[in-house]
């Protein structure tokens, strides 16, 4: 007890001294400031803040690559407004871990396969980071913002939409869209080469809407969604005005989002009625709603579903939740799939000997009859066409990086800890251009997937990410690209007008040919 009292007295005395010291310091500072003009006070405060900013930056940076000092206040904001591929590459090549600062945000970039995989598989430390505009457009209630167990649970309920059986159900609607658009391709570029980047964006919206909503959605509504989607992409800026004021980009984006959601919600209601009437599913909404109905029946009566297994009822989802989920799919798929389609048509036009091999495979799979409709068995046997798609995705990955946020201090290497609150970005370029896995990595060589050793390096295949947030639609995306280009090879010839920038990469959410891809289509003789 005695020693406790002594300790308390000593502590109280020390505290009293500290208070006295602090009061003296404040008084001295006050005297010092008194002799200064307001301008001097303001300038001194600013100088202190700027020095503190640099110290903070250096403390976070430690030994990793990056500027020796950060640009005051804005950091690398201006460079981030107009990103170039060459700028990104220089950053990735500067070190396995590098950093930038944008306003107050500290950003760590990982460029090696090992570090990128490590981040994507570290849900205890990181979670996906969506720009502020993303939350406004997709709505805060969207499932993509869930983390940890809640995310895993929600995702489980969506896996059934991408099974082999389900993918087969969506194919007829997809093929119908290819038929319609191929006619448009022929009409559009009859006279001369035209830029196809936007046209490919449009066909991908149409394929997505038909796959998600089947015939519940009209062609006019799909066209409107395609136009609206531009507004959604345009609103996705790194930094937006914080309020949704009328006639700003973000406001147009939110209006567009509302129209898309209204269409998807109405489709979900129609699908629910048709599935409740016991009809066959032919789109993703049908597949989801049918699974829910069957799971409920199983809970109530113990009936196995039509596939003979006991379905799991995660929970019942409302039309509004279903619509929001499909909005997230449209958001996740639209730019990436359009990017892949551009490069695919470009490379095949530039290398006719490879296109000939695709044609040979496609015709053989149709037993010599190019009019034969596709089914899942046929698509699965497209070995060479798959190699062409994979090689295109490898050489020109649509998604170059995925921003994550550090939930807590993250000791990513023995030497470096990513500070809590930083943005941390795994990147994919180096993994996908690794000399060992892909000799001559800048050469487009589909054979590396059939005869070469590319398939022996699954850890390098980061096109669709990895870990708990790995792309949900990857099988569907590859199947759609194979089916589309395979069918095009049967009915269309296309010529690419090469320009000096055809192989350069334009960053527009994803990667596109710098010259917007100038193509001319003509009908192919039977
Ligand atoms: C070539 C086309 C595509 C590419 C390159 C691509 C790539 C990616 C990447 C890199 C991620 C992040 C993975 C991670 O954080 O580890 C992702 C996530 C996602 N993708 Fe894709 N994607 C494509 C097409 C699609 C399609 C067609 C759909 C749906 C129909 C889709 C749905 C999603 C969803 C829902 C997520 C988030 C998953 C989650 O957070 O759990 N993607 N995608």
Automatic annotation (TrEMBL):
Output the InterPro entries linked to this UniProt entry: Cyt_P450, Cyt_P450_CS, Cyt_P450_E_grp-IV, Cyt_P450_sf
Cofactor (UniProt):
heme
- At the top level of its lineage, which domain of life is listed? Eukaryota
One of the GO BP terms on file = sterol metabolic process
Please verify whether the record's keywords include Iron. Answer: yes
The UniProt keywords, alphabetically, are: Heme, Iron, Metal-binding, Monooxygenase, Oxidoreductase
Report the EC number(s), separated by commas if there are several. Answer: 1.14.19.41
Residue positions annotated to bind heme are 471
The protein's GO terms of the molecular function aspect are: C-22 sterol desaturase (NADPH) activity; heme binding; iron ion binding; monooxygenase activity
Coiled-coil regions listed: none
Q: Does the keyword Heme apply?
A: yes
What's the family? Belongs to the cytochrome P450 family.
Protein name, entry field:
sterol 22-desaturase
Taxonomic classification, please? Eukaryota, Fungi, Dikarya, Ascomycota, Taphrinomycotina
